[in-house]
Amino acid sequence: MKKMTSKSFETLAVHAGERAPASDATPVVTPIWPAVTYLYDSMDDMDGVFEGTRGGPLYLRYGSPTVSAFETAVATLEGAAGAQAYSSGMAAIHSALLVAGAKSGASVVAALDVYGATFAVLNRLLTTLGVKVRMVNVNDLKEVEEAVRETHAAVMLAETISNPLLKVADVPALAEIAHRNGATLLVDNTFASPYLFNPLRHGADFVMHSATKYLSGHGDVLAGVVAASAENKTKLSELNKLVGSVLGPFEAWLALRGLKTLPLRFRRQCESAQQIAEWLCTQPHVSKVNYPGLKEHAQHALAEQLYGGKGYGGVLSFEIERADKAKVFRFMEALSVCLPATSLGDVYSLVLHPATASHRALTAEERQRVGIPDGLVRLSTGIEAVEDILGDLENALAKAA
Ligand SMILES: Cc1ncc(COP(=O)(O)O)c(C=O)c1O
Q: Per-residue pLDDT tens for 225-270?
């Protein structure tokens, strides 16, 4: 790199100390690289990077070493050739839909009980752009196949474990239906995390995550990621160079750090959620519990088979008997260990009222069709002592009764 010859104070203030040659020692953890732009020894080298004939960072919207490290880690954990990081889970889902073929005149068949914002992207945003959307019960494979055939769907979308009803998607069967009919299968794997399940290994074409949740795990970063084939990674990357839903290097660094403890956190969260779900089933003020780890759950056997007995996730939902919104709010305000805050997958236990939070974008009729009553509460189990969570729930249920 050329030496700076000017000695004026203003010039030194801008350049002094910068661009020291990198040491040949390798840092144990990936550093945060906040640089927006990069220099090369020659213009020919830079031209080669623009052209793609040589690798290297160029401009932060196109990617950066810290973000690449996070992408490589997720691709590895998901068994993918590549991954593309985003500024949020919704940016990831939106981009995957576009790359998979959601365009004017094309049809998308999606699970009815997806996260509220995903429902809204499909039914409010994409429909206004000319995409035809059909929402189906993904646990009824006959209905799925009919919808895909009738609409000549280009894209299918489902959640591995649905938010907030905890229905388990038969990803291998959905992939077979998709591919038999020339469609591409997108799976939101946020609730299962790659610890439990790798959709790509079971036939899915794209796997999306709100990395805000389990992958990061500490409630301090908003991020999304899509893992896919090398060809689709290139398409995702090219689209993102244009639209710029990029993950910042600081957030990528936090997410990468979070990933390291994913198996430890997730194992604990699965164990606690199982215990809490079983306990809630014995409570007089609880009329229904949704958790795939319960023997009576409609897809318990499927979940056991797909997740190999490793667990059933850290989220569960339950209905408080004859509860309206006011009673659920009373219950949530009476909690002190479980925090009534809008997220999931954190080390903290979090409770949420789907009807007024995650699924607020739906009309009352849409919520009724999906099956989200006002008395439904979603609990994302943290890593606290499970006795403390149980005691907190018991106390709040008694106060709300
Ligand atoms: C299953 C699921 N997918 C996607 C999202 C969106 O993620 P983000 O909030 O990171 O945009 C959420 C958010 O709650 C979610 O629960």
A: 999 999 999 999 999 999 999 999 999 999 999 999 999 999 999 9
Q: What is the DSSP letter of 60?
A: G
Measured CA to CA, the distance from residue 136 to residue 148 in angstroms comes to 10
Place of tokens 């990061």: 216
Confirm whether 388 is a catalytic residue. Answer: no
Residue stretches of the chain with pLDDT short of 50: none
| 241 annotated active-site | no
Q: What is the pTM of this model?
A: 0.96
**Cis preceding-peptide flag for 65 (omega within 30 of 0):** no
Q: What's residue 280's pLDDT?
A: 98
Beta-strand pair 184-188/206-210:
parallel
The one-letter amino acid code at 327 reads K
Cβ distance 75 to 227 under 8 Å? yes
C-alpha to C-alpha distance for 75 and 70, rounded to whole angstroms: 9
- Strand runs (DSSP E) across 220-278, as ranges? 224-228
Residue 200 and residue 227 in contact, taking contact as beta carbons nearer than 8 Å: yes
Query: What is the per-residue pLDDT across 317-334, written as a single tens digit (0 to 9) for each?
Result: 999 999 999 999 999 999
Query: Tokens in use for 207?
Result: 């796997």
Q: Is 61 a catalytic residue?
A: yes
Q: How far is the CA of 26 from the centre of ligand 1 (A)?
A: 35
Q: Atom 12 of ligand 1 has which residue's CA nearest to it?
A: 210
